[in-house]
Amino acid sequence: MNTEAGRQARFNQLAEAYGTDLYRYAMWICGNDALAKDLVQETYLRAWKALDSLNDLKAAKSWLITILRREYARTFERKVPKFTDVEDVVVVEDRELEPEDRVEIRQLRQAILKLAPKYREPLLMQVVLGYSCEEIAGALDISKSAVMTQLFRAREQLKSNLQNDGVTGNVHELF
After folding, report:
1. In whole angstroms, what separates CA 109 from the centre of its chain?
2. Of all helices (H) and strands (E), which one includes residue 139?
3. How many C-beta atoms lie closer than 10 Å to residue 128's C-beta?
4. Per-residue pLDDT for the chain (175 aa), expressed as one digit of tens each?
5. How many whole angstroms separate alpha carbon 75 and alpha carbon 114?
6. Residue 121 neighbours by CB under 8 Å, 6+ apart
């Protein structure tokens, strides 16, 4: 992209394609709407500055998620963010759910948030963002086998936690 207009068009294309995924991932990792929006904005700012270093558009999503993760880590260097109770976060659903479906979704979200970050992060990257094991390994700078192990353990912990809470059945069907 030699022209400024071409660079702007390329950036706009990335922002439109991945904006929703960036926000969704930011909400999962920080649990705060305002902070999630700030993280996405900071991600866009850093992406704009480094746009010329993105050589492969197929890697754009991983590149942006990595920027967002690093920006989230920087928030702890600058200040301690306010934490919001998960119960206070309102997530708009596309369809009206039955009461028992809402309970199951709430229980699943609470169980996911109780997982250690080591297990929660790869699970969210796979389930929420649709990343493959290779993409997760690249984003987290770990081996593919480590990702697969962490995903297995995350699901086993979820299964155990949900069944201890009285939820029966196959937790894998919830994904």
Report:
1. 13
2. helix 133-140
3. 15
4. 468 888 888 889 888 999 999 999 999 988 889 999 999 999 999 999 988 888 888 888 989 999 999 998 888 776 655 667 777 777 666 566 666 667 777 888 888 888 888 999 999 898 888 889 999 999 899 999 999 999 999 999 888 888 765 545 544 444 4
5. 21
6. 29, 140
